[in-house]
Every structure is written in structure tokens, then in C-alpha cells.
Amino acid sequence: MNFNTEKPIYLQIVDVICDRILSGELKGGDRIPSVREYGADIGVNPNTMMRSYEKLTADGIIFNKRGIGYFLADDARETVLAAQRKDFIERDVPAIRQRMKLLGLNSSVFDEK
Amino acid sequence: MIEISNLGFSYGPLAVLKNISLKASEGNIYGLLGENGVGKTTLLTLLCGLKKPQEGSITVDGRNPFGREPSLLADQFYLPDEVTPVHASALSFAKEHGVFWPHFELDKFETILSEFEVALEQKMDAMSAGQLKKTWIAFALACNAKYYYLDEPTNGLDIPSKAQFRKAVTKYTSEDSTLIISTHQVRDLENIIDPIIILDNKEVLVNATMEEISAKLFFDYGTELKPGALYLEQTPGGCIQVYPNTTGEESKVNVEAFFNTVHAHKDVIKAMFNL
Predict the structure, then answer these.
(1) Domain boundaries, given as residue ranges, for chain A
(2) Chain segment A47-100, per-residue pLDDT in tens
(3) Do B170 and A48 touch (CB under 8 A)?
(4) Contact A44 B211 (CB under 8 A)
(5) Which residues of A touch B221 (CB under 8 A)?
(6) Domain A9-83, CATH 3.10.100.10 — does that match?
(7) ipTM of the shown complex
(8) pTM for this entry
């Protein structure tokens, strides 16, 4: 797995899992691989993987069934969607607006061609 | 648990390690970094009991490695940088030597070797350097040891094998095993090593987890130059700047830049990481 250079790796892994939830590849109730399995699949340290799972757990996207493993919350998709919409509006939109201003573009660039 | 206290070792008049103290806890994959000649290999050979500490002590689960108790030897594996081209096939070597490790699994050796694309029947003294290294790595992991001391394990590995190595060290070691991997191939291994130990002339500069490093230092990959950066490196996409983390925002730790920052500001870093 190749990681970009900006964000901590554990957060990049969180983003990948969230994208897989949004795309429908992972669904509410699905079991996800253990920390070590997932870490081995993508070649990262188990500590890093554990931090990704801790973040996803804290955000209510996955939960741990003791002795069985990690599962996606039933409302995982809604949770991810709400968080990412908020993030898009608060972070991406202002950045796009600033860039458009710099390049002298208006909202017509969004019109379907 | 590995505990090293006030360890000292010299080769004749040449002092290599002096007053080294370090703890390594279970379930971690440590990256042991340091410039050429600072004593990484010496430290690994002391840890596995090949050398005797001249000052201070080492204990591994309370036992002295130089005592070479069979119960400890059965729990550890030291893989040197240069491995022996045994005059035997990979399979017969593994069968003959696996018996010394009570948890050795021949199936596991065969599985890992086939993932590494090395033939079981191939004679080890007729292998390329990379194939030989892969055979030894497969053998090491199949021993199911609790302590692994790996000296430059990715040296000589081709591009696909490096990725397979990263996967194998997590997949084929158990949760309570401790690995200490010395390496200069930081880019090969930076996603797999955590915590990071940096050894310098006769002392340990840092022993910290990636989480601790990113809490204390910020790695900026932007193009805007910041005053007060401890380290600056130009890259094709802009630059990497390292400065004290004052906002609490986390960034991706670039281990090479971290190493260079530590070397440029030893005292600042030591104070920052409370050593």
C-alpha cells in the first residue's frame, strides 16, 4: 500500500475504510479483519492499525465484540456520510472557493457539459 | 521484556557502547537506527548472547542472554546481515535445524518460502544473495520465537520481496513477540517499525513510538518556509520541514527526516523526549 505524505498513516487507513463504507463495499454488520490481519495485508505496524481501529471505534463506525472481532456498526454508512459531508463543507469548499478566486473562475465550471 | 542497563562494550581500546540503557516491551516491532559504526550489530549480538556485556547488564524476561539457557535460546532468533550459504537444500536445512526451536513449524516454512518464490529443493549455496536471505527469513519466522533480532533483513531483497517481508513480519509473528530490526533501509520499513530507537556514538538518542514522535514534532510537507524549523529538506514536491509540534495537530512521521532532525539537534531532541 502506498501512502501519501501529508496525513499520519493511521488516519489515511481510516479514510480508506470510510471510503469503502461509502462505496458500499463494506456494509453495516460486516466483520472486518483483525488488527494483525489487516496490518499484514497492507504491510503496516500493528500499533498503527490499532490506532486506526481505536479512532473508528471512538467515532462509532466500528465496534469490538470481545473475543470475536471488529464489526461495522449498523449505521456506519450514515455516520461516515454525515462526518464527511461536514468535513467537505467546512474544509474542501473554502479551499475550492479560494482556488477558483485565484484562477478567476466562477461557478459555471460546475455546469454539466 | 528486554531491559538493558548501563551496558558497555569495547573492541580493545575502541569503545562502541557506553552506558546504554533501554527497555523494549512485548508485542512491538522496534526499528534500530544509527549511522555506520555506532554499534547496532554489536548491540544485537549482545542481546542474543553471542557477546558478553563488559559493563552493565541485559535481561530478557529476567534472564541473562549470555547465560545461554536452552529455554531462552528456544525463544529467540538472531538473523545476521550476512547469512550462511549452507550446503543443503532449503527443505533439508529447515528439517535439520528446526528441531532446535521447539515451536518450529515446517508447514509455515514451506508457506513463507513459496510466498517468497524460492524453491524448497534449491541448494542454499547455489542461491543468489536475495534468495538465500529470503530462505533464512522464512526459517526465522517458522521458528515461532518470541524475540527476533534482525540485522538489516531487507538488504539484498528485490522490490517485490521487500513488500512480502513487510507483510510477513506482521502475519507470521505472534502478538506477544518482540522484534528488533536494525536497518538503514528506512523507506523499506518505515510503515512497519514503531517504536524507533536511534543509537548514536555510545548512547541512545531516542526510544519513542510514532505516536510520541508525531505529538512532539510536526512534519510539514508544504511549500511555505516556516521560521524555526529544526530541519529542512528540499524534495521534488516542495520540502519537508520538521519543527516542534505546538498545535497538537498530527502529521505523518517521515523517518528519514526524523533521523536527520535528531542528528542535527541531539540535545534539543533528548530534552524533548526526556532521555
Answers:
(1) 9-83
(2) 999 999 999 999 999 999 988 999 999 999 999 999 999 999 998 899 999 999
(3) no
(4) no
(5) 5-6
(6) no
(7) 0.85
(8) 0.91
